[in-house]
Amino acid sequence: MRPVRRIAIVGTGTIGAGWATYYLARGFDVVATDPAPGAEAALRAFVDAAWDAVTTLGLSPGASPDRLSFTADMRHAVAGVDFVQENAPERPEFKVKLFADIDDATPPDAIIASSSSGITMSVIQTGCRHPERTVIGHPFNPPHLIPLVEVVGGKQTAPETIEAAMSFYAAIGKRPIHLKKELPGHVANRLQAALYREVAYLIEQDVLDVAAADDAVSWGPGLRWGVMGPNLLWHLGGGEGGIRHLLDHLGPAMEVWWKDLGRMEHIAPELEEKVIAGVSQEVGGRSIEQLDQERDEVLLGLLALRAARPAAGGTR
Fold first, then answer.
1. What's the Rg (C-alpha) of the chain?
2. Does 316 score more than 80 pLDDT?
3. What's the rounded Cα separation, in Å, for the pair 5 and 31?
4. Closest Cα to residue 141, out of 10, 272, 21?
């Protein structure tokens, strides 16, 4: 992989704008492209609004919003770059054609990463002449704050590409994890979906309302999950006996809970309206911008604490 100095952002919606902000904060030259009307203005507004947050996290030497350029010509955007981060709509046919076009216009030794949240790279890379340099680099929203990046190759991705992508993301302050198998939704979204399936089931069964369900997560296990993952937390919960003691002690009870979990296959219209009404009540008139600010202020505080004690969540 060539040294990375110039990065192309293909698609500048919420995820692409977050990536652009983060790469600018890490001192790269960023060229962005998106065919949507008003895309450049929206991107620059996002970067300006998010710059205080990334400044709080810490800027790399040379970091500046002025290093952002924009073009509506995708082929021009990716020509001469060292790394591509694609963030286009989640439509398989569209992704396949887009990746083929990006692959055709990008220098052959540049990695092309996709932020796809659910489409596998084995599908996306089928039209590429150089599929060996394509890889999933899936962030967690908002990408300019959340460190996690899921890295997974397709059937034709070279092992060297995966290794280079892992090294690159780690070098710029991300927390990459390598997924050894392709799965729809990757891993973090599947974990979210598993939890929300049970949340929706409990609301549907009138066990609790929407706000109480959010409190059950955000003021309970969610606080601990922001410090350590579930395996390490259960090791801690096992006391001196560690994870082995906890699994031996609580394993049978968990098996009973697992069997009783909701088996919802879809969200019925009645439940959808129930959730929407509950969220509206919980929001209480706050705007999306206000909610974003509340979330990000707490995230920045937590990230600062995590940075001060980097071993708290594991040794990786």
1. 21
2. no
3. 11
4. 21
Distance CA 256, CA 192 (A): 21
Report the number of secondary-structure helices (H) and strands (E) in the chain: 13, 8
> What burial letters (b/e) apply to 275-284, b meaning 16+ CB within 10 Å?
beebeeeeee
Q: Residue 246 corresponds to which tokens in the numbers above?
A: 């906890």
Residue 223 CB-half CA count within 13 A: 4
Say how far apart CA 120 and CA 159 lie, in whole Å.
16
Q: Quote the tokens at residue 61.
A: 């030497």
pLDDT at residue 254 greater than cutoff 70: yes
Which of 8, 14, 69, 19 is CA-nearest to residue 40?
Answer: 69
213 touches 203 (CB < 8 A): yes
Q: Is the pLDDT of residue 25 over 80?
A: yes
Residue type, 140: F
